[in-house]
Each structure stands twice: as structure tokens, then as C-alpha cells.
Amino acid sequence: MSAPERAIGIGLLYLLTIGTGIWLSNSGRPLSTLFIMVHKLIALATVVLTSMLFWRLLKYVHTGTVLVGLIVASAVLAIALFATGALLSTGKPMKSLLLTIHQLAPVLLGLSMGATVYLLIR
Ligand code: HEM
Question: How many domains does the chain have?
């Protein structure tokens, strides 16, 4: 499979992660452990496949400051999503702040991952 095909597959998986997140949020309270697990595993698969793609492509390009900055930003945003996701799963206090971060980070992560892939395969 070529790099652009892999990037499209990962993009679709990322949309599925967001879709299962919205579905989970609207599925009623208390949140189903099974639904959380499904959302978490799809998110994990997306992050692992993205890291593998970045790693492969990084061998062929010169890593400038912008590219490194985008990769670091993507990593920080992914960590923020996993941390807030884990806390939201337990129903801990400060839910609204955690949820705001968990809703905003996917938009920023999509932009930073998209820009990274563009710089890697253009
Ligand atoms: C790339 C990673 C992830 C993305 C893009 C993502 C995205 C989303 C989105 C868009 C929502 C819907 C928010 C809303 O509109 O109400 C959501 C909800 C949720 N996600 Fe994630 N998520 C990710 C990772 C995770 C992980 C790793 C976990 C668990 C460890 C998790 C747990 C949750 C929970 C519990 C909710 C429901 C929050 C609530 O309504 O109380 N997420 N996610």
C-alpha cells in the first residue's frame, strides 16, 4: 500500500474515532464500559498506525523546524486526548473542563496530523 493510501485509511479511522466518541457521549449515562473500550481501541489503533506511517516517511525527508514542531504538537495533543479520555471514563470531577479539552483537541490534532502528512508526502 502506498503512503497516500495509508494516509487516507488513517484519516478514515480518525473520523471513526471521532464518530464513536460522539456516539459514546450521546449513548446515555452511566457510560457503557464496552462503548468506551470500542472508542479507546479505535483511537489507539489510529495513533499506532499514524506513528508507524510518520516513522516510515521520516526516513525520506529532511526534518525542518516546522515538521518537528507539528510532530511534537501532534504527540502532545494525542497524550492530552488519552489522559482526558481516561479521566472522563472514570466520571471524575472537573468533567466540563476535561470534556472541553477532549472536544477541542481532536480538531487541533486533525489539523496538525494533516499538515504533517502533507509535509511528509508532498
Ligand atoms: C485520538 C484520540 C481520541 C479522539 C480523537 C477522541 C474523540 C472524542 C470525541 C469527538 C468525543 C465526543 C465529545 C462530545 O462531543 O461530547 C469523545 C468522547 C469520549 N471519549 Fe474520546 N477520543 C479519543 C481518545 C479517547 C480515549 C483514549 C479514551 C479513553 C481512555 C476516550 C474516552 C472518551 C469518553 C469517556 C468520552 C465521553 C465523554 C462524555 O461525554 O462524558 N477517548 N472522544
Answer: 1
